[in-house]
Amino acid sequence: MRVGRKIALVGGVPILVAAAIAAAGWILLTQGERARAGALLAARAYHDLTLARMVRDDAVAARAEERAAFETRFFDLTSRAGRGLETLQNQARTRGQAERAGAARQSLDRYVARMRDFSAVARENDGLIAEMGRRANRLTDLAEQARQRQQASNVDLARTITGKVNRLRATRDVVMGLNGLMAAAWPLVLARQRGEEADAARIDRGRLVQAGRDLAAALRATSHEPAAAEVAALTAPQPFDGAAGDRLTEWGERLLKIVTSEQRTLDDEVAQLLAYAVEANATEQATQNIGIATLRLGQRTAEALARRDTEAASAMLGEGDRLSASASALPISPLIQSDMIEAIDGWRTRLATTMDGLKRQNAMIAEMDGLAASLSEAARALNDDALEDADRFGTFLGRLLLAGAAVGLLLGALVALLVARSILVPLRQLQGDMIALAADPKAEGLSGTQRTDELGDIARATNFFVTEIGRRERALRRAKDQADHALEDLHQAQDDLIRAEKLASLGQLVAGVAHEINTPLGIALTTATLVRDETRAFQGLVAAGTLSRSRLTHFVDRVGEGTQLLCANLTRAADLVHGFKQVAVDRASDERRSFDLDVWLGELLASLQPMLRKGGHRIRRECPPGIVVDTYPGVLAQIVTNLVANAVVHGFAGAETPGTITVRVASTGALVRLEVGDDGSGIAPENLGRIFDPFFTTARSRGSTGLGMHIVHNLVTAKLQGRIAVESEPGQGTQVRLDFPRAPAGAERPGTARRPAGAEAP
Amino acid sequence: MTGIMTRIAAVALAAIAVLGDAVPGQARTLVYCSEGDPEALDPGLVTTTTAMSVTWQMFNSLVEFAPGTTDLRPALAESWAVSDGGRTYDFLLREGVRFHANARFTPSRPLEAEDVLFSFLRQWQPDHPYHRVGGDFAYFRDLGLAGLIEGIERLDARRVRFRLKEPDPTFLPNLAQAFGGILSAEYADHLMRQGTPEELARAPIGTGPFRFVDYRPGVAVRYRSFPQYWRRPREAGTQVGTDAVEGLVFSITPNTAVRLTKLKAGECHVMAFPGTADLDAVRADHDLALLSGEALNVAYLALNTTRPPMNDLRVRRAISLAIDRRAIVEAVYGPAGTVARNPLPPSSWAFDPDLPEPAFDREAAARLLAQAGLSDGFETDLWYLPVSRPYNPDGRRVADMIRADLARIGIRARLTTRDWNAYRAALYSGAPTMMLYGWTSDNGDPDNFLNVLLGCRAAEPGGANLARWCDPGYDAAVKSARGTDDRETRTRLYREAQNRFREAAPWVPLAHTVVHMGVRRTVEGFRADPLGRALFEGVTARE
Q1: Alpha carbon of A240: minimum distance to chain B alpha carbons (Å)
Q2: Residue B394's closest chain A neighbor by CA?
């Protein structure tokens, strides 16, 4: 079996086990979650229902205007609980739960329906109670109206009674007057009855007339005008005889009958009026009492209704009944009695209706309480159920995880062990083979290449690798050898080149020296020629003896002058040769020595004069005397020569005016600075960086090799152990600055690689 | 206490504002201060104008007298046809007339022929289940209708036929009287089924403008207006088309002075019969108006001719001669009364102006008494009216004066009275010897005086002939007068009857009166009625 499969086996078995556990766990978790969610829903529903019940209690106890808010809250809560139950029903895990939730929902619907009924009845009752209030108010209003009317009536009644009493008094006066008259007339009547006609004259006329006048006045006071007139006529007769007495008596008795009956009538009337007054006021008081009783009853009833105390309200109904009865029975002003009775009866009817509503409400409350209790119970049961479920799932999940993990671990470990074994053994074999192979590449290849698994692949690959490495190594070695040869060739070539350059430089030197020496020698030759010619001439004169003094003098002068000249030029030539010799030695010898830089420089520059003279260029030397260095003068000379040659060849190339080269030396401590500057055309910036590259030149056409500056660089850094820098700008000339120790360290530094452009070599 | 009263006052203000909405400026309840208790609420049982007025509010008859007149007009009968020589009356009933409802009963149908049949048959047929319920249908009997009617038949739901044994010109006017009020047969059946037939008379149901609410003796009869009343307000004679009152109350106030006080105080809107002494005061009051109309009435002293010594014509004549009726009229009636000569008022077409005023002659009276063997006089009972009546404002005073007069000839009258209903019942039972009573015509016909009050049929116990006087000649004359439509013949017969009455002196006719009603000026639509009815249909009052 391939290792991949084995690894897959090792990894896969636990993964599969884990996946199985995970799947089971997921299912369990989902179920548990659902159960827990159900429990939460049930708990929330329970909470909502409990709250709803409290809110309902508030609504039941609330005043009419506050109830709506509670009702809204109630319906919100119950609808939320309903939604919760619906969700529970839909998500129920078992049919039992679903049925329970469904039953709870139905109960809830009934509960809500009851509450709606309750609200409706409550609103109805509110209306009724308000109406009752209006009725009660109307009653008290009516009572007040009655009271006001009674007050007005009392005033009138008092006036009426006073009038009647006055008339009664006047009537009594009439009766008295009548009695007086009759008494006055009485003797006459008696006399007549006795037959004493003659005595008529003895009648006291004065008394009769006076009594008549009194009666007439009394009669007038009672509006009995005709009777008053009759009195006078009846008492007038002269003489007042028996007939007159009879007439008077008869008249008097008739009047007496009328007046006494009137008196009785008036008595009756006054009595009746007084009775009425008393009764009316009593009635008014009773009316007021009914009003007050109603008001109190209304208040007590309202309180009883607010308490939902139907028993007390029933008692109120009874009282209302009695109140109605007394309102009907009392002689209350008919103007308001109907209204009062109607108000009370309306009040009672509404109270009865309200109580009926109240009873219905109480029944509803009881039913709602039952429903709420069963609902709460159902919600709680659902909650418990769900929680139990959730716990069961949780426990099961835990066990499943534990068992699954153990089995998975065991299985995984076993498989891993087997697989590891089957991989490790060939691997170790391979390792051994490879170590052996490493120790001896030529040894026999790896074993196990015939295996089909990855280890076989590895063995084969290793075999191939080792073979390939061997092949490449050999090829490399060959290449290296070739390279080494090439390098040697290169070194050779370089050395050849440098030698050639050196020789070229030397040639230059020689040419220069030859040129320098040529002049004094030429002068000396000419002078010697002249002297020879003079001498010959002198000799001829002497010979000819024509020698004259002046001629002698002149000759002596001329010979002296010539000698002097000869001496000078020959000295010079000798000097030149000496110098050249030194330079040449230096150049050739590569020896290190101590020398005065000023002197040395003078000599060197002198050797370079020919190179300059062609273009008329001048060279200036600024070197403080006394700087003694212990270094390689040949190297230094080659350097300065190359630099001066560069300035002439490159800096002043094409220049119309002669240039000036300045060689400046300064000593700073252990280092000496030597600067070679020109005022030539300068170096183009793009070329500045490549100035030390070998074979770089801008004047190959003029025969430059491009090795000059390269060699300079190498010489400065390697031989002199110094540094070199070039500064140049086109049209501004070029300054090359060398810094080198007065006395370099013993050993020659290996030549440093040419550094990139512009950088100062170390 | 103060607090409560303040509150009452406060709510009163609020309630007044509420009340104002109902009928602006309109009295909700109309109060009539009536003079006495009704003897019954059943129109078949009533005999006094007091009770009749009580029933008129609730009931309608087939035909009726237009208020304030004695002119007949259709009522529940839309029309009628007389045929068979005046012996057959076919009535066509008005359509859609609704009966009242009460707590016990709600009518299921409008007025039908059944109701008319029930209303009359119960009075007519002795074996009718309702014939003995609630009392005695004295009025129907006194009018002789029981003998007159041959049959009452239902032609169809809206048509009823009355067949008479003989033509009777008083038949139609008689039907316009209170006893002709139509009751609900359905209600009667309902009550019979309920086993409470007596409720028919206690909680009446009719078709009238007001429905009965309750009656408390001595206190009030209360009504509510009946919104489904068949007659529209304008037809009812309301001057302004305003809403009728909601409630009507007959506030029972027997004392005239108290009545007037109540009227003045606004406790009632209309009062019956102000006292004669108070008429000027009423006229002088700017808030009040005095309505007066010559009523067809008579006040009399009936002498029970069946009881000794009144069975002696001489005694009756002696009594008649001994009473100074002028003094009585002068003192008690004042300008509102005239001395009566016989039962008919002078305004009746049958009145006999040739008969002189009965004499007042004490000596002659004493002589007659002596002739009768009662020279020492005798003791007797004199019943006087406990209440003021349209024909007699002060029964007690009249009785006082009569007693005084009688005392002069040795007759010692014992004044007796009862409360109004008991009084009336006693009189109808025939117990009293001398009794003050009176009559207001219910239809304006002479028959309504001469037959009802003095006919032989009415002389039976329970009848309105309080003198229990039955004179065959008189009765024949009156009956004959009834059998014809000829005014001259009738006049002649009635005059003859009047002469016979004068001869036999079963009564001492006392007075005819001008009836007065006191009304507040805010009342509109109320009219004095010559038949003594107080009709409140369409009457309104401003607040």
Answers
A1: 24
A2: A265
Distance of CA A406 to the CA centre of its chain: 47
Dist CA B439 CA B444 (whole Å): 11
- Report the domain count for chain B: 3
Q: List the one residue out of B56, B203, B45 whose CA is nearest residue B134.
A: B45
In a shared domain, residues A371 and A263 = no
Q: Tell me how far apart the alpha carbons of residues B361 and B368 are, in angstroms, rounded to a whole number.
A: 11
Q: Has residue B9 been placed in a domain?
A: no
CATH number of the CATH domain containing A620: 3.30.565.10
Q: Is there a domain that residue A549 lies in?
A: no
Classify residue A61: in a domain, yes or no.
Answer: yes
pLDDT at A588: 61
Same domain, B303 and B382: yes
The pLDDT of residue B61: 94
Length of chain B: 543
What percent of chain B is predicted at pLDDT more than 90? 39
Shared-domain flag, residues A22 and A105: yes
Task: Examine the pLDDT at B58 and tell me if it is beyond 90.
Answer: yes
Contacts of B180 by beta carbon, 8 Å cutoff, 6+ apart:
B43, B61, B62, B63, B119, B120, B174
A&B contacts, CB < 8 Å:
136
Distance between terminal CA atoms of chain B?
30
Structurally, chain A folds into a number of domains equal to: 3
**Range picked from A366-380, A412-426, A523-537, B471-485 for highest mean pLDDT:** B471-485
Strand segments (E) across B112-193: 149-156, 159-164
B191 and B107 in one domain? yes
ipTM (interface predicted TM): 0.76
Q: Which residues of B touch A141 (CB under 8 A)?
A: 8, 11-12, 14-16, 19
Q: To which residue do tokens 């009156």 refer?
A: B478
Q: What is the CATH number of the domain that holds B38?
A: 3.40.190.10
- B415 three-class SS: strand
Closest C-alpha to B192, from B128, B272, B100: B128
DSSP A58: H
Residue B15 located in a structural domain: no
Query: Is there a single domain that holds both residue B467 and residue B497?
Result: yes
* B255 and B115 in a common domain: no
User: How far is the alpha carbon of A250 from chain B, nearest alpha carbon, in Å?
Assistant: 11
Query: Which residues in chain A are closer than 8 Å to B324, comparing Cβ atoms?
Result: 254, 257
Q: Is B543 part of any domain?
A: yes
- Please state the φ and ψ torsions of residue B451, each to the nearest 5 degrees: -85, -50
**Would you put residue A654 in left (φ > 0), alpha (ψ -120 to 50) or beta?**
left
Residue type, B297: N
Highest mean pLDDT: which range of A547-551, A688-692, B341-345: B341-345
Report CB contact under 8 Å: A156, B324: no
* Bridge pairing between strands A733-741 and B411-416: unpaired
Give me the residue from B18, B29, B324 closest to A334, CB to CB.
B29
Which residues from A are below 8 Å from B31, CB to CB?
A: 334-335
**Same domain? B40 vs B108:** no
- B512 three-class SS: strand
CATH number at residue A85: 1.20.120
- Report yes or no on A36 lying in a domain: yes
Q: B186 in a domain, yes or no?
A: yes
Question: Where does the pLDDT of residue B9 fall: very low under 50, low under 70, confident under 90, or very high at 90 and above?
Answer: very low
